[in-house]
Design a protein that fits this description.
Elements lengths: L1 H20 L4 H6 L7 H13 L2 H4 L1 H15 L4 H29 L4 H49 L4 H10 L8 H14 L4 H12 L2 H13 L4 H58 L1
Amino acid sequence: MWMFILFGVEMLLLFVVIYLGRGKYTELFASIPYKFKLPAAAVGAMYALEHLRLMKYLDFITVKAHEKIIVIHGNKHARELTQFFTADTLITSYMCLLVGTLLGAVSEGDVSLLGIGLLFMLLIPVLSLKGLTTEMERRKRSIVLDLPEVLNKIILLINAGETAQGAFVRVIKGMQVEEKRPLIEQLQLTALELQMGVSFAKALENLSRRSSVSEVSLFTTTLMLNHKRGGDELVTALRGLAKELWDRRKAVCRTLGEEASSKLLFPMVLIFVIVMVIVGAPAIMVMNS
């Protein structure tokens, strides 16, 4: 009986914070898109974070999440996205507690089910941070895969007589964005900065800082050190860099291939077991008869 009372109290708290937070964050959610796992309850989590000052007590999550969000999305809305991420994690963890309490209540007070709910509630923040790490790694891999192609186009234009800055801008303008790719987005921001009068060196420095990838830093440093010299020295430096970046791209492709093979291992073993059962079952049945 006490678990039903506990579940009722938990539901009451949830409805109260949702009621208090209704309509307060509509404009914020509209201005900064974010995919909440439970959009209806997100306002309650946002209200609890803001008015109960839970962000201060959840700094072991928010600090790590903020660092990763800056790498993935940049500085522009990092603070708001960190708050969204924390609210989403908080409400998901609370739902695990609710489900555990409900299952324990309907199972005639089975405390072990409540314990499982508490365990999942504690695991959700860890899994959420791991998801951010995976997204950050995926972003880095995408940049490493795209950068050698961009550099090859720049080298071709410089060989044709174009300046380093002119080749850089021309390559960016010629890109067709059919899908969301991090490198292309950052390069287009750099082209916009150049159109606004930012110097080439400063624009490259901003590109390196926004990307937070060592390969992009190497690319921008090489361009900054050699673009004023021009001629054979610039082409030689860029060709050496292109060779190194292609080697890194091959390493990333090799890693992706190995990961794909490891993911296929379990389905292959499962299929093998099913085939063995299908083939061996008739023989066993004949022997038993």
